[in-house]
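Chapter summary example.
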Amino acid sequence: MTTDQHYWQGEWVDDAEADRRLDAIDSHVATALGERLNPLTVLAACDRLALALADPASAQSVRLFAELRAARIPAGEAARTLTDIAEGLSREALEAKLTRELGGIDPGRLARFDFRREIFEGWLPVGLLVHVAPGNAPAAGAFSVIEGLLAGNVNAIKTSGSSRFTQLLLAALAELDPTGTIATRVLVLAFPSSRTGWLERLCAGADAVAAWGGEEALAGVAALVPAGCRLVDWGPKLSFAYLTEHSWADASALRGIADDICRLDQQACSSPQVIYLDTDDTEQVFAFAERFAGVLSQTVAELDPALPDLLESAEITNTVLVAGLEEHLGLTRVHAAPDGNWHVLADVRGALRASPLYRTVWVKPLPRKEIVQVLRPMRRYLQTAAIGAERADLAVLAGEVLTAGVLRVTVPGRMLDSYDGEPHDGVYALQRYSRRVDVQLDERFATDSCLDDLVGARELAVPSVPVTGKTEFEQLQDDLGRAEVFFRSGGSSGAPKLSAFAWDDYHEHMRSGAEGLLAAGFDPRTDRAMNLFFGGQLYGGFLSFFSVLENLQAVQFPMAAQDDHAAVARSIVDHRVDTLFGMPSYLLRVFTEGADALRGYRGVRKVYFGGEHFPERQQAWLREEFGVELIRSAAYGSADAGPLGYQCGETPARVHHLFSGLQTLEILALDEDRPAPAGEAGRLVFTSHTRRGQRLDRYEIGDLGRWVAGECGCGRRTPRFELLGRFGDVFRSGSYFLNYRRFVTIAEEAFEHRGALQILLDEDDAGESLTVRLEAGTAPDGAAAARAFLDGYPELGSAVEQEGLLTLRVEVGPADGFEHTAASGKLLSVVERRARNR
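The structure predicted for these 838 residues follows.
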C-alpha cells in the first residue's frame, strides 16, 4: 500500500495527515458548503470522464484498468466495468437521473411549484454525506459519491483499503472540473472496518450515512450514527429467475440466465441466486437442473472466471457438501464442474435460499399460486426477478412477485442491466441524499419565480471553442441524436432553418419563459390572456407562449393572428380579455381596425410583444386611446437559441435580465472576438449549458447590445443587458457606421412618427444613396423628414452635407409596399441593394 492512500479535497495524504484533518472535519465541510455546487458543473465533469473512459488508451482508462487488475479483477470484467462506468457517467444518463429523481437538472433552485402562490420549494443537500462502500463492488461507492455530488453534498467515503480504485476514479473526476468545486466536496479514506475509531469520527459529523453490507455490518454502522442523522441502508438483497414451462425449455432464456449468473460472478444484488420453476413436480426440477448445468458449463468455458478467496471457497465447499449429503434423502441433486468453477444445486424445497455465489445457483420448485406465500416472508431482501414466460403470463406473474416484495422485474439475460433514472432498491437515491425545503412568503414576492435570483447569478464559464456566427448555424447541428422537436426560424436574418430541441429542452425553456413573464408583471391569478402570435409559418412564438401560459396555469384564449382584425377585437371584448400577446405590427392593426370596440371597452390593461421593435410613440397611442397600462417585452429569445432574457418591473425599454440558469452571455467587440469595453455596444454571443437537442456553444445570435451596470431596482442579481438592434441595423454608408435604431428614435422624437420605417441602401454611377421609407399617417413630407434626420444624426449630416459621400432621400407611403421577409412577413429594417454587399 502506498503511503498517501487517502484523497482529501484534492490532495493525497497519508494516515497521519488524514487523522489530523478528521479532528477538524466540521470546518472543512462548512467551508465547502459555503459555495453552492451547480449540478451542471458535475454533469460536465462526468461527461468528460465518460469520454475518457470510453477510450481504452486514455490515461484515465489505463490507470484505472491497472488498478482493477491489481485487485484480481479478470481483464474482461475490468474492461467491462470501465465501459459500464463510462455509460453511467454520460451526460444523457445523469440528466435523466436528475430529472426523474429530483424533477430537473437544477433541482436546488428555490422556485415556485405553482406560479399563483408565493411558495418556493427546492431540493437542497443534506450536508456531509458519509458513504461506507462495499468491498466487492469497486464502482458502487464511487457512483454513490457522484450521486451525492449531484445532490450538492460534501461526500466522505470509506473504502476497504485494499484498492485505490475509488480514490483514483474520483480524483480523475475532480481533475476534469476546471472550477475546482468538485475536489472540495470529495474525501476518500481507505481503512479497514476494524479501525472503528475513524469511522466513528466520520459519522459523528454526518448529516446522512449511506452504507452497504450484510446485516451485521449495517448494524455496526447504525450503532455509530448519531441521533437525527439519516441512515441510508443499501442492505443485502436476493434476486432470482422464475421460469414457466414454456420458457424452461427455451435455449435463449437459459443462456440469458447463465449470462446473468456469470456476469460479475453473482457479486451484484441483482444477480440470480435461485432459479424457480413454475411446477411442483420434483422430477421436472431435477431434469431442468441437469439441462441447465450444460448451459452454465458452456457459458463459463467462454469466460475468464474470477476465483473466490479462501473463506468464500470454504463456504461454497460446505454448501455443496451438505447438498450432496441430502441427495440420499431425495431432496437435492448436485451438478458441478470438475474444477469447481460452477455448481447447479437442485432442491425440491421451495424456500428462498442465498447462494454462496461464484457461479453457484439453486434450482427450486415454486408453483405460481404459492409465490406470495413462499416469498413474502423474505420481502425485505427481495430485489430483482427475471421472469421467463409467454406474453399472456408475464403481467400476471410480474404482479405476483411484486406483491411478494420484489422491487425489479425483468426478463432473462437482463437482470444486471439498468436504465437511466431507474430506482435503486425501490427508492430514488438522490432523494435520500437530499432534503426537500420550502419558503413561504407574501405579496412582496408576487413577481419572483426563484429566490436564487435575488442572491446572485450562477453563470458557468464558456467553453474553449471559436464563436459560431448566425450564418454558420448548421455547424452546430453535427449531432442531433437527442433532437426530438424542431422549430423553423422566421428567416428574418437569412434563409429559414430548423433549430433542434429535445422535449426536455422545450419544457425547461417554457418553464423559464413563464418565470420571465411573471417578472414582467403577468398575474396568472387574475389576467385573461389572448395569444395572438402568428400560428402559420412563424409558429414558434404561438406555440411557445401557449406553453408558457400553460405553465403559468393562466386563463388563455389561443386565437393566433387572424386576418379579420375587427373580429379579433370583438372577441377580446366578448371574452373580457385584458392581456394580449403578439407582434407589434399585428397588435396595432387589431387596435386600428377594432378601434371603436376597444376604445369603448378600455379593458385591455397589458400588452406583451415580441418579434419586432415597438416604437414608443405607438405605445403611447395605446395608452392614451385605449387605456393600456403596461406594455413590455414578452421575452427576448429566438427560435434557434430559445429564451435569452426577460424584463422586470424596473427595466426600461430594450433592457433585459439574462436567463442565467439557461444561458451564459458574452458581449464581444464589433470587429474581433474580445469583450466589448464596458458600456459599449457589442455582439451578443450565447452559450446554452442545458441544451440537449443540439449543441449551442458561443453562438452569435445576430443582435447587438451592451451590459447595464449596477443593481436593478427589482432586487434580482442576474446580469442585465440592453438590446441595440440587429447586426444588420448597424451598416456602413458614406464611410460612417450608422444605426437603424437611431433613425427610428429621431422619427419618434422629431415628428412623433408611429408607423413603420425602413432604410434602403443603393448605389449608382453618382455614388451611394440612403433612402428612408416612412409609413404614411404620421410622417411629414419628405423634405421636412430629411431635415430632421440630418439635424438629429451628426454623422449622417457630415456624410451628406459636408463630405458629399452620400445622397439622402425620404419616401412616404403605405407599409404594404415596404420589403418584408418571405417566410415570416417581418419588416426588413435595412435593405441592402449595393452590388458590392450582395
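To summarize the output: The chain is about 35% helix and 25% strand.
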